[in-house]
Amino acid sequence: MNHTWTRVKTSLPNLNILVFNGIEQGFIYKPKDSKTGQNAWRIHLGIGENSKFIGHSWVMSNAKRILESVVVGNVRGLNR
């Protein structure tokens, strides 16, 4: 599995993009909220307006693992 994670510094805090075989496949991000520190990592498949929210995780490594599993499943034709 040829993939890398790239941290992007933009207006979204803690934005990490999954690049699989040179193509951006999805992203995770953790929003900052001044009211509480209990924000979970949001997991999205795809980039831009067509991205799909998959779920959330309290731990970054788990969020990455979930997105990697979905992307690999899509590439192998397992997620239909």
Quick recap:
With 80 residues, this protein is α+β, with helices and mostly antiparallel strands. The chain has one helix spanning 60-75; strands at 3-8, 15-20, 23-29, 41-45, 52-57.
Instruction: Name the structural class.
Output: alpha+beta
How many structural domains in the coordinates?
1
Low-confidence stretches: none
Q: How widely separated are the two ends?
A: 20 Å
Round the mean pLDDT to the nearest integer and report it: 84
Figure out the total of helices.
1
Give the overall shape, derived from the CA principal axes.
Answer: globular
Helix content: 10-25%
What is the number of strand segments? Answer: 5
Q: Give the radius of gyration.
A: 13 Å
Per DSSP, what share of the residues sits in E-state strands of 2 or more residues? Answer: 35-45%
Helix and strand pattern: EEEEEH
Q: Largest sheet, if any?
A: 5 strands, antiparallel
Major sheet: arrangement of strands: 1-2-3-4-5
In words, what does this structure look like?
By secondary structure, the chain is of the alpha+beta class. It has one domain. The chain is 20% helix and 38% strand. It is built from one helix and five strands, in the order βββββα. The chain has one helix spanning 60-75, and strands at residues 3-8, 15-20, 23-29, 41-45, 52-57. The chain has a five-stranded antiparallel beta sheet, covered by helices on one side. Strand 4 (41-45) and strand 5 (52-57) form a beta hairpin. It is globular and about 40 Å long.
